[in-house]
Specification:
alpha/beta, 31% helix, single chain, globular, 84 residues, four-stranded mixed β-sheet
Length: 84
């Protein structure tokens, strides 16, 4: 979880995420899980980003779903080490 903590302002969750170090690509169920967790947070002005990290990459369905969701970010090893 990434939290913004500025003086004179209430704390705000900026992002929640999950890292997977497994041999299989990550599927849509992980993004669904993060969305569910986000729904449990208090309402905020700005949306909470959803971050998924994976050693083995992502299933094609998840890639399509994340591409359509401006709040979702998928980070594989290449992106983690080399950047965008």
């Amino acid at each position: 979880m990434v939290v913004e903590d500025e003086a004179e302002r209430p704390r705000r969750v900026c992002a929640i995420g999950e890292a997977k170090w497994r041999a299989d690509p990550v599927g849509c169920e992980q993004l669904v899980r993060l969305r569910r967790l986000r729904s449990l947070l208090p309402a905020q002005q700005q949306p909470v980003r959803l971050l998924l990290f994976s050693r083995a990459g992502f299933e094609p369905a998840l890639l399509r779903e994340a591409a359509a969701d401006p709040d979702a970010e998928l980070i594989d090893l290449e992106r983690l080490y080399l950047g965008d």
